[in-house]
Amino acid sequence: MTCELCTAVGGQLLWQDTRLRVVYIDEPGYPGYCRVIWATHVAEMTDLANADRAHCMHVVLAVESVLRELLLPDKVNLASLGNFTPHLHWHVIPRFRDDPHFPQAIWGPRQRETTASHSTPLDLAEQIARRLAIRLDA
């Protein structure tokens, strides 16, 4: 069985180092949706050494922080599921009260058909990438 996160980037590449990458997911209704994807094929956080776990969470929290600064969401969801793709990755999803699924998980039943009313910069992915580089390459 081929792992899609081993063979493809998995979104628009925003930042990476030798251990992981951050990608932007262009999902309508969910501006700022990012994933932090571990570079090698492991399924669980406990498959990583302690230093790698700490590094992964450092990057996940940096992504959350950047998204909060840029978008001012009502909430940020962090999830590491991997049920369909058992390759370690974290979803970092800014949530807004008027998004299609709020307050439910984005994988649950839609709550409304409306589009979000908050403003999203046209160059959002580039802004996220710039801020991550400043924060993580320092």
Describe the structure.
The structure is a single chain. With 138 residues, this protein is of the alpha+beta class. It has a single domain (4-136), classed as HIT-like (HIT family, subunit A, 2-Layer Sandwich). The chain has 3 helices and 5 strands; from the N terminus they run H-E-E-E-H-E-E-H. The protein has helices at 4-7, 50-71, 124-136; strands at 12-16, 20-24, 34-38, 75-79, 89-95. Strand 1 and strand 2 (20-24) form a beta hairpin. The chain is globular.
In short:
The chain is α+β, with helices and mostly antiparallel strands and 138 residues long. It is built from three helices and five strands.
Blueprint of the fold:
Elements: H1 4-7, E1 12-16, E2 20-24, E3 34-38, H2 50-71, E4 75-79, E5 89-95, H3 124-136
Helix pairs in contact: 2-3
CATH topology: HIT family, subunit A
Shape: globular
What amount of the residues lies in strands?
15-25%
User: How do the strands line up in the largest sheet?
Assistant: 1-2-3-5-4
Radius of gyration: 15 Å
- Order of helical and strand elements: HEEEHEEH
Number of individual domains: 1
The largest β sheet comes out as:
5 strands, antiparallel
Give me some keywords for this one.
138 residues, alpha+beta, HIT family, subunit A, 5-stranded antiparallel beta sheet, 3 helices, 5 strands
